[in-house]
User: Which sequence fits this backbone?
């Protein structure tokens, strides 16, 4: 992910992550201390931290489009690998859950699996062209 | 695909980084092209040909017999 | 490899999956296998055809036309992004609004449909 490294991008990325962190704190505090009654409003407040994630996604997509062609290929291969690994891991976990061999856990763990698969896949892909 | 990129670059005494800058790609791409582990896209192949004032066929050798 | 042979292989793997699933359910529900580690193994056996399908997809990908490849790749990129956001959002709802815990099978539902939508969007763009 070399293409992420220039200064304006780092600043923008940091900005989005900071906004996300602030919104997490605010939204959790609001839900906990304010006892928001109306369900759709609760959903909105709970999902507020997701908005900056779209900012990060947009930033990532822009950097990808501007990237050098080989970098695009390597990144795409990394993401595909992450996609495949996540499919296998989540399906396996689903089977274990169905047979009461694993606990029901939150979906927040899916993103780390996607990310780790992506990183490993990208490292493997980079080697193919070196 | 076999290519004469390294030879052509050496003739002009350019480093990989310099060639990368002139073509608007990363040094990683130039290296991958030279060790023949990557084939350029069509637009890039044309850029390379124009830069070295040759045709694409002069630079990239397609080994397939028709 | 695309077309009939691909469909044939897919049918084979799905058939094997059905058999293994049936077998594993019989062994586990019928309490034939009781030793925990073995139960885990038996529960995961129906996953094996997934590797077969993965190998099939990879072989097919290598054999198809480059535009078709780009379309599939674009679909996967879209699927990755959508899945990340949707599952992460649902995770938030689970933790802070008490949304129900559901099976991880649904992650694949999100991944698969996002991939389909993404590749159709790409197909439309390259028309």
Assistant:
């Amino acid at each position: 992910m070399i293409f992420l490294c220039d200064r304006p991008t780092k600043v923008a990325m940091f900005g989005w992550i900071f906004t996300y962190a602030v919104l997490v704190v605010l939204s959790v505090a609001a839900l906990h201390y304010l006892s928001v009654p109306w369900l759709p409003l609760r959903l909105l407040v709970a999902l507020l931290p997701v908005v900056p994630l779209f900012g990060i996604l947009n930033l990532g997509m822009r950097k990808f489009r501007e990237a050098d062609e080989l970098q695009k290929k390597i990144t795409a291969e990394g993401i595909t690998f992450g996609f495949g690994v996540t499919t296998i891991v989540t399906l396996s976990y689903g089977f274990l859950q169905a047979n009461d061999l694993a606990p029901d856990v939150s979906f927040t763990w899916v993103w780390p699996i996607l990310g780790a698969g992506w990183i490993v896949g990208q490292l493997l892909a980079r080697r193919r062209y070196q | 695909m076999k290519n004469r990129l390294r030879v052509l670059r050496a003739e002009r005494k350019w480093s990989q980084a310099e060639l990368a800058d002139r073509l608007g790609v990363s040094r990683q791409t130039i290296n991958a092209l030279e060790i023949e582990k990557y084939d350029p896209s069509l637009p890039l192949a044309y850029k390379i040909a124009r830069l070295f004032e040759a045709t694409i066929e002069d630079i990239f050798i397609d080994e397939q017999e028709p | 490899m695309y077309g009939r042979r691909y469909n044939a292989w897919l049918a084979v793997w799905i058939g094997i999956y059905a058999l293994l699933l049936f077998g594993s359910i019989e062994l586990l529900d019928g309490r034939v296998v009781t030793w925990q580690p073995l139960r885990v193994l038996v529960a995961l056996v129906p996953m094996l055809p997934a590797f077969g399908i993965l190998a099939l997809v990879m072989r097919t990908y290598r054999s198809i036309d480059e535009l078709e490849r780009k379309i599939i790749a674009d679909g996967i990129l879209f699927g990755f992004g959508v899945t990340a956001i949707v599952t992460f959002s649902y995770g938030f709802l689970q933790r802070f609004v008490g949304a129900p815990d559901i099976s991880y099978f649904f992650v694949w539902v999100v991944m698969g449909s996002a991939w389909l939508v993404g590749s159709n969007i790409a197909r439309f763009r390259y028309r």
